[in-house]
């Protein structure tokens, strides 16, 4: 029997989201540091929320093309276990951030077509994990968190030398099918468990985890 699927719930904005996500079954909690996002957190709020997370649950900071100065300030204030890089960071920049900040790094890679798959192989050489997400539309304000899925058949049966997560448009209704089609053992969700942009819904988080953990 395979190990249970790991769920990451990203973009928590309210302190009540932390116990709700953990009770639902999430193993990773994501905190967003990107000003254009409806899920963006101020450092003191993130510090408070992350400080309530028990041992054994991975606290992930999501950043987009962040400077070292910002990462230094954020990590000095917020207890974080992993960095999620969701911008245009090159493989060299991923290595640099990993070495400088001493934390595992998960690099998000946007997929829309077969031409995007080579980047996954490149980043799997330098990151601790890769996040296989939908590529945002050209005019999108956000590089992720858009509730957009990609064609899961593109990665069916594909494997990488590091752990990976599936993301992009996952919901309580489609996550089981997404896992079955791709073989993912880790899934990440943000807008699919919200009642409005930036507002997590405890029932949807529970339904999402139940559906993912049933696989
Ligand atoms: O959630 C955000 O606001 C966000 C902002 C900037 C970059 C990434 C963001 N979210 C990540 O996007 C994917 C997919 O989200 P969704 O489930 O389709 O809404 C997920 O990895 C989030 O961590």
TrEMBL record:
This is N-(5'-phosphoribosyl)anthranilate isomerase. It comes from Sulfitobacter alexandrii. InterPro entries: Aldolase_TIM, PRAI_dom, RibuloseP-bd_barrel, TrpF_fam. One of its GO terms (biological process) is L-tryptophan biosynthetic process. PANTHER family: N-(5'-PHOSPHORIBOSYL)ANTHRANILATE ISOMERASE (PTHR42894:SF1). Pathway: Amino-acid biosynthesis; L-tryptophan biosynthesis; L-tryptophan from chorismate: step 3/5. The lineage of its organism: Bacteria, Pseudomonadati, Pseudomonadota, Alphaproteobacteria, Rhodobacterales. GO terms for molecular function: phosphoribosylanthranilate isomerase activity. Its EC number is 5.3.1.24. It comes from the Bacteria. Signal peptide: none annotated. The keyword Metal-binding does not apply.
